[in-house]
Amino acid sequence: MRLELLDAHLPRVESIWRELEARAKPSYFLTWGWMENWLACLPRREMPQLAVLSRGGKTIAACFLGRRRLRRHGLITSRALFVNNTGLDAYDELCLEHNTMLADGGGALAALVEALPPNWDELYVPAADESVFAAIAKAPPPGTRVRIDREVANYHVDLDKVRASSGGYVALLGSSTRAQLRKAQRHAGDVTYEVATDAKQALEIYGEMVALHQRTWRERGQAGAFADPWFDRFHRRLIEQRFSLGELQLLRLRAKDLTLGCLYNFVGAGRVLFYQCGFGTPADKHVRPGYLCHAHAIEHSAKQGHAIYDLLGGDARYKRSLATDETRLVWGRVQRKRLVFSLEDRAREWIRKRRDQQASLAAKSEP
User: Fold this and answer.
1) Is 225 found in the same domain as 114?
2) Structural domain of residue 233, as residue ranges?
3) Pairing of strands 2-7, 58-72
4) Does this model's pTM top 0.85?
């Protein structure tokens, strides 16, 4: 197996990625549409390299690798690599999910680990499908071990089930959610559902979504994702460059003169990925803008022939209520075996046991 590490702006990077994308059919986050926009928006000093694995002259797999030196607990340093991320929160706030190496077969992550030169300590793969770590965790490459840092639910709607349901999407939901959604529909009255048909309209809906989103988060005492000008520029450029290619959905639901909500979704390989939203605040508390917007988007996506409406990672109650199925996303890393990491694990385990003991004693001392 041969590994090349290429400057991300070399002309052949696009052709390498597009060739693998055509074979692998990944989620939208791993398409050239997303990656080109990411590379175009990143500062030059934060640019990742493209890691390319090939065998017998044929490209097998690729990913972008960010590189950072991390310090934990003031003592532990790590030469860290990040798959399709920079390792900096300021740029990784884009929250790429269904992350992995772009490949048309299994075993790519293990092959990368074995092919990398020995100038790294940890290889991070954030927000990956659980299958990405399944094989490598069972048989880590020599001199390495796998650590899973976090795991969350990934809820989605199977759109084949929606198309097969005589009662449509609503009939697939649990009784409580079904009742809430139908009540919301009655209280909302006549609504207008708008799907952007060109980039100008898409940007107009996007602008209103951002305003609604930011208002909600400011009312909660938080900044909101779009407070960061870089984040906003990234998405405005993405819409300008990619909307006409059918890769994005911008949707808006209105009741009379009030916007109930706007959704911003990505489309690729039969999957519609719900990415961001902004909701109005109707006076009638029974009108649930989120439920109504997603229900319309799900029915629309089913009619468009897509396979999955993906609510992405997170165990929010509304996602659980609106979904028909569930998988898992994991944040994991491959570590080279170093004494300092073993000591870190022992210290963490000691602290955990100490806290458990203190909690147990506190519970016993209560009257």
Assistant:
1) no
2) 156-327
3) unpaired
4) yes
